[in-house]
Specification:
homotetramer; 349 residues; alpha/beta; 2 domains; globular; Pept_HybD-like_dom_sf (chains A, B, C, D); Peptidase_A25 (chains A, B, C, D)
C-alpha cells in the first residue's frame, strides 16, 4: 500500500479503459484489441479474469505489459470458509498458470517478500503472511535455504527504500523467482477484500508515474517477480467520487425504468457497475450540471474544494482485521501447496 | 468504537443543534438556553469547550445530562511534540476540573478500562493505553490495588458484553471512580485525531437508541464514570454526506463572494464549518435540487442507493498507527500525573 | 506459573511420595493405599496416569482430594506432528473422562481462563490459548455467550488478584464449568513440555501453603473448576538438586553394575528415575558424605550457600517459543472438539 | 544468542584466564602481560572494565584482538531507574570511547542491526531495541537514510544466515559503521542483566570454533562493527557447574575461617568470586574427590551423565521481560544520544 498515492487503483480490471469497454456491445472490440487478450470464466463462486497484454495493449490500458490474473468471489464474507476454500483452489491453479513458462525445478530458490506496515491493520497482509511462513517453518516441505522470506517493513521504519532492501536480499540469495505479497488500493469499494490479483509485472509504487527506486520487477532486479495483491483500502476521495456517480447512475436507471433484474446475478455485473450510460437530461433537475461530468472532472472539483486532510484518509471494512488474517493465511497456504506439489516435488508436472 | 452504529457522532460539539446554533447571531441564544451552559476559550493552541447540561438542555441537544469538555488542537499533526505537550497540560487540568466534586482522597480506588479491539488500528487506543500502564507499572506512584486496569477486548472476542465485564470487575474492586478510554466516531473528518473529549456521562453505545446492557455509566454501575474519548474514525456514509455538503457550501460561498478570510483563523471556525447558509438558488444550476436538501435527506438517499457494504466501511487517517500510539501515551501520561498530583498526593488540593 | 514459589512441583506424579512408592516392589502397596487409586496405561506413544484420592489419600501425597490425569509423551519433540496428534486424542478423551459426572448439557455455559504473563515466553501458554479461541471465534460451533474466555494477565499487571478477577467474571457469567489453562513448574527437567495434567481440584498458587485469595477452585468459586496445565519451567535450585542427584545415581548404578537395559524403554522408567537406591558406600570416595543426603538436605544447603538471585531464576527449553505455541494450539483445539462433540451436540453421550 | 552453543561465555571478563589471573597477587602480572592492557575503574555504581588486546594477548585469553569495554552495575535491579540512568551515562561515554578513532562525521551512515528471536523473551533484546528506534523514528535527529535499522530474525525463521543478511544490507547501504545489538550468554548467573559489553571485534557465533558464515565483523564485512551485548541467559549445564563450585568454595572458606568481610563490597569482588583457592583437604570428607576437580572435569562428568535434554535448557531471571525491555530502551536511548551529540552534530568533538 503506497502511503502517498492511493488515488489510483492497483487492480487492472478497474482500469478505466477496461471497465468502459466492457459494456455488452463493446466487449468484442476489446477482446480483439491489438495487444490485449482477455478471458473471463467462472469456476464455482470464483470469477477468473486472465489478461495478457503486449506493449501496445499495455499502453492502451495504462498498465505494464505482461500477464494479469484476478480471482474474485463477489459473495465472499470474512467468515466464509467455503469461499476461501474455493478461492485458494483457484489461486493455486493461477500460481501454476502464471509460472509455467519459468521452468522452476526442485533445485530452484524462491524469495518471498511481504510488503506493508504491520501496525496499520489493512496494510499488514504482507507481514502477516510472512509470520505464517515462520509459524509453519518446521512443517514446510522445503530444504533449508530454498525458500527465504522477509517482511522488510515500510521505508519510514527502516531508512532503506523497500525496493533497495529487496535488491540487497535478492543479490545475496540469487533466487529463481521472487513472490511479493502486498495490500492494494481499489477504486470500487465492492471489490475490497473479495479479489486477489496475480501479475508477473511486479510492483510499481507510484504507478504510471514510475518511481524506479521503489519498483520491484524483473526489470529492476533481473529476476522474475510475481506480485500477489489483495485490495484492502479505497482512498477517501475515490470513495466519494464513486458514491456520487453511483447515485447518478442508480437514479438515472430508475427514472429510465432501465431495471435489469437478471443482470444483477450475472458474472459481468460484478465488474460492470458503471456500464449503463447515464441519462443526464433525466436527472439534471435533481442533480444539476455535474451529473454529466466525467469522473475526472468530479474528482478535480473535490480535490479543489475538500480540505487537504481529506487526501490523507483511507477507507477499509470494519472487519478489516479478520479479512487481513484470512487472506494472509490463504496466500501462505496456497503458495506452500503450489511450491510443494508443483515446484519441489521430484516429478514436476 | 461501536461496530454496528458509526452513523452517529460521539462528539457533543458536533451535535446538530450545537453546531447549528453556533452561528454568530444565534450564539447568545444557545448560551442562554435553559439547561445549557457553554463556554469556549483558547489556551495556546488548545481550544477548550466546556458544556454543562441539565435534563432539559440534554434533551435539546440529544445527549445525556452532565458535563462535557472537549479539547481540540486544530493544527495538531501526528509528529507534533509541542501540540501533544500542550494538549496534555490542558487534559490534566480538565481531569481536575471534571472530578473536583468527587472529593477523591489518597485512599480512593480507581478502575481504568481501555475499550476497543486491539487488532483494528484506530480502535486500539484503549488497549494501547492499558499496555502503557502495564509497562510503567513499576514506576507508578500508587500503592498496589489502588489503581486497577483492564482492556476487556470486544464483545465478539470474549462472549461477555463489555458493560457486563466492567460491572463484574467494578463489583469486585469497588472503585470510587471508573475511567473509560475509548476511540470515538466523528462526523467531520477534520476532527479526526485532533480532539479529546471528557464527559462524566459515561459511555452509551448505540447512543440515543439506548442499549442498556452496554452502557457504562453511573446509572448502570453505581460508580462515577468518566469517559475519555478520541475521535479516530468517520463512518463512510457520513464522510460522503459531509463531502457533498462541503462542495455545496464552498461553491455557494465562492459564488456569493462571501469569503471571510479572517474567520479561517478564529476559534469558532474550527467548529462552525457549517455555519454559512447555502445560497441554493445560486448553485442549483450546477448541483440541482438536492443542493437544498438537509443532511438527513441526502443521507437517506445514499442509504437507499449505495450497496449495503458501504455501511460497513470506516474512514481513518493514513497515519492512524502513529496517532493512536501518541494519544494512548498522552492519556496514560496525563491520567498518571493527575492521579499522582491531585488524588494520591498527601495534601490534595 | 507462580512467580514467587517455583520450588515446588505442580505435577502430582512428581509428588515425593508417589515417586518414592513407585518402585517395583512397593507399587502394589500404593495402589492399595487407603484413599488412593492409581491407574497407568499406555495408548500408542501416550502414557496416561489416572489418580483418584479421597481426603486421607490426598493428605498422604500432599495434594488436594480429587481426580488427576496426566498425559505424557516421553518422546515428544517440538516439531512432532504425530506426537501432538496422539496427545490431543487422549486429551479429548480425558476431558470427557474428568467431566462425565458434571452432566453438562447443550445449554451449559463454560468460562475459559488463560492464566499467565504473555511477555514471558514459557508463561504465555494460557494467554496464547485464549488468543487462539479469539482467532477461531467465527468458526466455533457455540452460540454467543455459551463460552466466555479471558486472559486476565498477572496480578502485577492489573492491580487485581487473579483469583478475584476470575471470581468477578464467574459471578457475572454463572458458568456451569470453569476451565483454567496455565503453565506449571516441574521438578524433573525431562518432563518439561512433554506432559499435560488435568485436575478437577483447580489451581492452588502457593500450593500446600494455601493462599486462599489466589485459589481458583470449586471451594473458592462455587463452580466446578478443571485446571489444564503444562510443565514449562523448572526452578533453578530444583534443577541443580536434580542434576546433583542424577550424578550420584548414575555413577552409583554404574559402579554396582546395576544396569537395567530394558527398563529404559518401559512405561515406568519415565516416572521412576529415582527408583534405584543409591549405593552410598560405593560412591562416597568420589562424592563424599553428601551423596547420602536426602533431596531436602541438599536443597537446604544450596539455599544457604547460593546467592539470593539464584532463587529468582528459572530454566526452560531453548525451543520454548515453539513448545508454548504448539501446546496452546493443541489445548484450544482439544477443548473445542470436546465441547462440540460432547457438550454442545444435541445428542450428548 | 546462539541456539546451539550456550556452553561458552560471551563476556570477556569471564574468560577463564582473565578471572584466574585476577587474584590480588597475580593482578599485576596480567596487567603487564604482553599484548593485554586492562583497566578497571568505578564511576558511581558502575564498574568499567576496559581491555585492549593485540594478537598475542588475544590468543592468551582465547578472544579476538581488539577493544572490550564492560559496564557492570552489580546492584542493578529491574526497577532501578537510578541504576539504569547511571549505566546509560557510562554507555554513552563508552560509545564515544570505542569509536573515537573512526572519525565519524555528520555525513556518516550507520547501520544498526538487532539480532535475536523476538518470540523468546531473553533473546528479544535486539528486536526490541529496533522496535524502539521505529517508535521514536519521527523524533530522531537524523536525516533520512543516515541511520538504517533492521531486526533480521533468526536463521531458522528466514532461510538466510544472519551474517549473510547483514552483508546483503551492508553492501547496499555502504555504512561507515555497523552497530549490532544482541543478547549474550554468561557463565556466572550473578552477571545476568547487570552488565553491558561493547567490543569492536564484532559478533562471532560459535566463538572459538569459528563459524565464518555467521561472523559479523570488520573482517567479514569490510566495515567497522561494534557489538553491544547484554548477558541474558546462562546455559543450564553452566549453571549447575557454577552452583556446585560455589558450594565447594563457600563451605571451604567457612571451614577455613577465611571470611573477608570487607572484600564483599570492593570493586573486585564482583568479578572475582572464584579467587580464593579451595581447601580441598578440608572439604573432601563432605564432598569427596570431585571437590578437587577443575571446572572442565566437572563439566565433562555432567555432560556424560545428564540426559541430552539438559543441554537444550537455558536459565534466565523470572523478571526477564522487564529486564529485556529496560535494556533495549537504554541501548536505543544511549545510541541515539551518542549519534546526536557526537556524530551528527555540526561541530563534532
Amino acid at each position: 500500500m503506497d502511503k502517498l498515492n492511493l488515488m489510483r487503483t492497483d487492480l487492472i480490471d478497474e482500469a478505466t479503459e477496461v471497465v468502459q469497454h466492457r459494456t455488452e456491445k463493446e466487449k468484442d472490440t476489446l477482446y480483439e484489441s491489438p495487444g490485449i487478450q482477455m478471458n473471463e470464466e467462472r469456476k464455482g463462486r470464483v470469477i477468473i479474469t486472465h489478461i495478457e497484454t503486449d506493449a501496445s495493449g499495455a499502453e492502451t490500458i495504462g498498465k505494464k505489459e505482461g500477464t494479469y490474473i484476478t480471482l474474485s468471489v463477489p459473495t465472499l464474507t470474512a467468515e466464509d470458509a467455503d469461499g476461501f476454500e474455493q478461492l485458494e483452489q483457484q489461486f493455486i491453479l493461477s500460481l501454476h498458470d502464471i509460472h509455467h513458462q519459468l521452468h522452476l525445478t526442485p533445485q530452484s530458490k524462491v524469495l518471498i517478500i511481504g510488503l506493508g506496515n504491520r501496525t496499520i491493520t489493512p496494510d499488514a497482509i504482507g507481514p502477516l503472511a510472512i509470520d505464517r511462513f515462520h509459524e509453519e517453518m518446521f512443517s514446510l516441505p522445503f530444504e533449508h535455504g530454498q525458500v527465504v522470506f522477509y517482511a522488510p517493513g515500510v521505508t519510514g521504519q527502516t531508512g532503506l527504500e523497500t525496493g533497495e532492501f529487496v535488491k540487497a536480499i535478492a543479490d545475496k540469495v540469487k533466487p529463481d523467482l521472487i513472490l511479493v505479497i502486498d495490500a492494494l488500493a481499489a477504486r470500487n469499494q465492492d471489490r475490497l477484500c473479495k479479489t486477489i490479483q496475480l501479475t508477473n509485472t511486479g510492483i510499481h509504487p507510484g504507478s504510471g508515474v514510475g518511481n524506479a527506486r521503489n519498483e520491484i520487477s524483473f526489470e529492476s532486479l533481473g529476476v522474475p517477480v510475481t506480485a500477489i495483491g489483495v485490495p484492502m483500502v479505497v482512498d477517501a476521495p475515490v470513495l466519494v467520487v464513486d458514491a456520487i456517480e453511483t447515485v447518478f447512475k442508480v437514479i438515472s436507471s430508475q427514472i429510465g425504468e432501465a431495471t435489469k433484474p437478471s443482470s444483477a446475478l450475472s458474472v459481468g455485473s460484478w465488474l460492470r457497475s458503471t456500464e449503463a450510460p447515464i441519462n443526464v437530461e433525466a436527472i439534471k433537475p435533481i442533480f444539476g450540471e455535474w451529473s454529466g461530468w466525467s469522473s475526472e472532472e468530479i474528482r478535480a472539483l473535490l480535490q479543489e474544494v475538500l480540505p487537504p486532510h481529506h487526501q490523507q484518509l483511507f477507507v477499509t471494512p470494519k472487519e478489516t482485521d479478520t479479512w487481513v488474517t484470512r487472506h494472509a493465511d490463504m496466500i501462505q497456504s496456497g503458495v506452500t501447496k503450489w511450491l510443494q506439489d508443483d515446484v519441489f516435488s521430484s516429478i514436476s508436472p
